[in-house]
Amino acid sequence: MLGLSVYLNEPLHLDDLKQRLSQTKNPSIFTSLHLGGEEPEVEIHRLQQLNEVLQESGAELIADISDEGLKRLNISGDPVSFFEKSGVTCLRLDFGFMDQEIVQLSQRIKLAVNASTTDQHQLEKWKNQGVHFENLIAMHNFYPRPETGLRMDFLEKINQVFQTAGIRTAAFIPGDTRRRGPVYAGLPTVEEHRAVSPAKAYLELKTYGGVDDVYVGDPGLSDAQWMTIQSISDGIIPLRVDWADEDYREVIKGRPFTNRFDDARDVIRAQESRQEKVFSEDLLTQRKIDERLVGTITVDNMDYGRYAGELQIARNDLPADSRVNVAGRVSAGDRYLISHIGPGQIFVLN
C-alpha cells in the first residue's frame, strides 16, 4: 500500500488528492496536528475539507497528535469523538501519552505507535496491561534533517519484532516535487533514501525493510514516480527503454512479459517471447549486433536455432554475439529495477 501525506499548515490541493486516491487500492492519508504555523481555526477547517474527500474515497486518515497539539487546537473533552467525527481513523501517538492512556485509546480507535522507539519489552508490557494489539500499527518516524535517518539494517531488525507480534509496520519515503519545510531535504525514514528516487525507496522498504505500508512523507510526488510505484504495487515492474530498433519497439513496448522461474545468472528471459511467437520472421534476421551492457534488451535471431525469438535483458555486461540482436537498453534511471526482477516476476518495457 502507498499512502500520501497532507499537511494542514499549508493550502490543500484537493483536486489532485482526489485523483490520486481514486487510482490506489486501500487509500490512506497521513497528516500531523502538532506542526503549527497556522491559526487553529484554519487547520480545523482544512481537516473538515479533508474529511469530505475521505468520505468520497473511503480513505483512511492517520493523524499525528501530541498533548501540546491537542491543546493548541483547543481540542478538549473526548478527543476520540472529535477525531472520529473529523474522519480520523487512526491516531499516531507522538509524545506525552502514558501507558494507561494508550490502553484506553486502543479500545476505541486504531493507534500508530512509534516503531523506532518501541521494543519487545514495551510490547509485552502493553499486552499485559490490556492494549488491543489488533488496533495497533507500528509506524516509523520520518527525518527532515539530513544525516539523521535510520539504517536499513536497524529498520529490518526492529520490524521483525512487530511482525512476530502480528502488528503491521509503516515507514516513509521522500517525495520528488513539493518537499516540506523548513529543511526541504525530503522526509524519509531511511537515510540512504534521501538521495534516491521514491520508487527505489519504496521497493527497498518492501523488499529489504519488512515494511507493510509505505507513505510518501513529503506533500509532492511526480506523476511518473506515482505511476511507477502503482505498477510495482500491482506486481508489475515497469522499465523505461532507450530503443535502438523501432521495429522491435512497436512489438515489445507496453506488452507484459514474465521472467522464467529457472532464473538465469546473466540475463532475464521472457518466457512468453518464444512460447507465443511474439516476433515475426523478418524480425529474426540478423539486425543490430553490439556488446550487451547491463540493461541491454536483446532478441535471439535465426542463427541461434531453437532459441530464435527469445527476448532477454542483460543482468551483467556481456560481449557482442552475432546470434543476438540488440533492440535497446533500459534507461539509466530504471536499471536499478533489474535486480528486483526475480523468478516469475512480470515486467513491461516502455
TrEMBL record:
InterPro entries referenced in this protein's UniProt entry, alphabetically: Aldolase_TIM (IPR013785), Cyclophilin-like_dom_sf (IPR029000), GH (IPR017853), MupG (IPR008589), MupG_C (IPR043894), MupG_N (IPR043797)
Annotated 6-phospho-N-acetylmuramidase N-terminal domain residues: 2-230
Ranges where the 6-phospho-N-acetylmuramidase C-terminal domain occurs: 244-349
Coiled-coil spans in chain: none
Family annotation (Gene3D superfamilies): Aldolase class I, Cyclophilin-like
Domain of life: Bacteria
Name the UniProt record assigns to this protein: Outer surface protein
Naturally occurring in which organism (per UniProt): Melghirimyces algeriensis
